[in-house]
């Protein structure tokens, strides 16, 4: 590796002259470095660079930076994923139970059940289990799996459609059930309560046998309309757990059984009361001396059914965004077949079809304009309100709307590969994922029910002890039932998933694709935004502005450089090649092309040894450089590319990458959000500083090697910062993956960027602001929801237990308890739906 006069930098693999100033000794061997950056990295962990010969680094072109290491590769390497639409869940408790069972099932890597989407997302080892086996597990638990059948199952739209139909049918059935329950409950309520409200009626309704009538009306309400509570509670009991069904079943059954005994054998209850005091109770000539509470049981069931109905209605609206996205899919495409044009269903379009798109029509699939041109409204996918001009060779996206012109396009992506389908898949995944905050809610919910049952029993015992004998059973039963019902944690399970569904859906409609609940939650804690320079702050399409030459003439210099750069994929290289083409310069034969990431290139052109790149690249080759010209260009915000021919400094080519119009405004708004903004670039310090000044970022980290960007993020994280990295997702994937939140600025055509947590369909910094604002709004919404869900329980339980009774004589009726609990779910879902009104940032 080492010759007499040159060394190889062990970090980047670059050739370094013996005169290079930076060196270090490790285990008796001395190494030379191209830059302080490499030296620093080497000193941090020498083994890392010595164990794996980094000579390979020199063959890499700068754009092919290594992909991020998968952190948990071994466990999930061969895992497959399936989605099961579940039927029969009626509360978040069910979701939790199914999830637990699935996770304990052999062959399952991870399973998550989302109550809002009613889906289970399961990662499993195909050698250990299969989707059919998993379906059976669910069925064995007493739930069902929707079989959409055939094609629909593999197609997101079809599956969603099937799910919607089932939900609709379910909804209608539940509504009928509720209405019948209501019809039976109303007379019970009137019989039981009219006497309290209008004393004159008391005698009318106190006819003998009244409690038998109430019994007859209540029984079907409880055991037919409210059957699901009992079957649910039973299923839970079989798994030795208790959920909200348990609470409802226990509450209503207590009220019912107490009343039943009072109806059939009141003397039992009387005897209990009389036995203690030795005297019969006050001789009220009532139909049932101890009182019956049939209405309590009936009203609880009816109100909870109503609550679930309202909740289902509101919950179906939370998936509105995804339905809207799917609805964008055009049905037909006008395809040229032979010399005829015919309308064919979208599913029959094949790659390479030529498609005609007329004004006012939707672009059917993704493709490329091959004839004509137009302006296209892409707002439905990118959030960009202004129509985008499309000309020959431009990419068009399926489901966008053609406004003015007519054009022909070549189908380049169809079916599942289209941008629209990718977006739909991403949103589905995001909506099925859990935010860390939900784990807390789930944990609380799992302890909640047993705690509540204990509290209810304690309440019963205390009231039974402290109340005079003639009313003690009544008091004890009433408070027992109230505590059970008001403490039901159903709203708790809805608080996070509904907000995440609405939040991610709203994002997708504005071109912000959030990978999941975790990304959403982290995004609201960010302290620092790191922006990549090229393509993020600047347009990413640089062009040559100046050519300074010292040895050969201008055209020769440009020709030599462009020939050398022909093999480069770097935007700077491309700019030089383009500029030579524009001047009509021919390309010369090249040998020994070598790209040195972060520094430049070396090559032999026409027998001459050419170096094109940074000042350091030249000095490290022992070439004397007069940098004054380069510095002046850099101070003007241009990137000076230095050129050496046969070991002599021969010229400087200045390349300018214009700053995007919105960049400065966006940086300002990021500051307004209280965020620190840092620019990260491989470009030289002077150029970087100049650009930084123009856009107003707080700090610049310049001259970072392509694979050093992840390290820079790590350093910031080590300072306790929560960092978002914003880049194009192609050559900064490791940094995106390293960041707490990786935000990829899409180009409109590539949305499934692996390393990114958030993908902005439209490459625009305003999307960064919107994503952060959206995440903050969503998390705030979740917190409100949790507050709503908890406040009912926390305030409700002591009141239901009768804590106010000694002071005010006030006791929370179980009926009010059931009303509050029904409304808590509704208020949570309604609050989540407010996120639909979130407005995105427009530059
Ligand atoms: N093919 C090339 N031709 C000429 N110069 C190059 C080439 N590749 C790299 N360089 C030099 O190396 C520097 C660093 O390159 P690198 O790719 O790390 O970052 P960049 O493209 O300038 O900026 P950013 O990090 O913001 O994307 C460039 O500014 C340029 O001076
Ligand atoms: Cu509940």
TrEMBL record:
Residue ranges of domain HMA in the record: 80-146
Biological process, per Gene Ontology: copper ion export; copper ion homeostasis
Keyword Ion transport: yes
Span list, region Disordered: 50-78
Listed Low complexity bias regions: 59-77
Membrane-related topology note: Multi-pass membrane protein
Record EC number: 7.2.2.8
InterPro entries in the cross-refs: ATPase_P-typ_cyto_dom_N (IPR023299), ATPase_P-typ_P_site (IPR018303), ATPase_P-typ_TM_dom_sf (IPR023298), ATPase_P-typ_transduc_dom_A_sf (IPR008250), ATPase_P-type_domA (IPR059000), HAD-like_sf (IPR036412), HAD_sf (IPR023214), Heavy-metal-associated_CS (IPR017969)
Molecular-function annotations in GO: ATP binding; ATP hydrolysis activity; copper ion binding; oxidoreductase activity; P-type divalent copper transporter activity; P-type monovalent copper transporter activity
Location of the protein in the cell: Cell membrane
Recorded catalytic activity of this chain's protein: Cu(+)(in) + ATP + H2O = Cu(+)(out) + ADP + phosphate + H(+)
TM regions (residue ranges): 178-195, 215-235, 247-271, 291-310, 443-464, 476-496, 786-805, 811-833
PROSITE patterns: ATPASE_E1_E2, HMA_1, HMA_2
One of the Pfam families matching this protein, by short name: Hydrolase
Enzyme class (EC, first level): translocase
Domain of life per record: Bacteria
Family: Belongs to the cation transport ATPase (P-type) (TC 3.A.3) family. Type IB subfamily.
UniProt-recorded name of the protein: P-type Cu(+) transporter
Organism: Geomonas paludis
